[in-house]
Amino acid sequence: xxxxxxxxxxxxxxxxxxxxxxxxxxxxxxxxxxxxxxxxxxxxxxxxxxxxxxxxxxxxxxxxxxxxxxxxxxxxxxxxxxxxxxxxxxxxxxxxxxxxxxxxxxxxxxxxxxxxxxxxxxxxxxxxxxxxxxxxxxxxxxxxxxxxxxxxxxxxxxxxxxxxxxxxxxxxxxxxxxxxxxxxxxxxxxxxxxxxxxxxxxxxxxxxxxxxxxxxx
Length: 217
Prior knowledge:
Blueprint: H1 4-8, E1 11-15, H2 22-35, E2 39-42, E3 56-61, H3 70-82, E4 87-91, H4 94-98, H5 102-115, E5 120-124, H6 132-144, E6 149-151, H7 164-174, E7 179-183, H8 189-198, E8 202-205, H9 208-213
Parallel strand pairs: 1-2, 1-8, 2-3, 3-4, 4-5, 5-6, 6-7, 7-8
Helix pairs in contact: 3-5, 5-6, 6-7, 7-8
């Protein structure tokens, strides 16, 4: 049985609302400390932040559209690292993915990888906007470019967030070589458990307290 502690250890406690204030981020960090989550995930403009020892800091890049020049994403990632980010969650260029330019997708990711070579790099593929074949190809491009994780969603795309089907397909594609992060629309314990059962090794949650309340231990 998955325990509360098991889940807390794989949560990126997330606040990416554009109107979030410094005070909101401080509250997020305090809640993450209380809940025992793995990390906090914030917007780049909120860095640097002070966090308790052991709490990781993740930052988004090219968010939420991914429709940025690769050099801009790379510069954003590099600045996030300078400002203390341990992990970078970048968004792929969806236009390139939709038109089947997988070499272009791979190169976009690689530029960001090179800008943050020692940080954990998660690649948001926006799975709800892709076909199964495109999900597989996006995962393969991410792995080829040196990513550490593939991630389902930004949580901002109108097509929707994470699904167990997408998570399972992503896990089947990357095997145990990469992590799989499920994010977007996971608001209760049942949904979180479903993502873990499908193969997720990290969860991006803004409703972490509510989700954890549904687990024993």
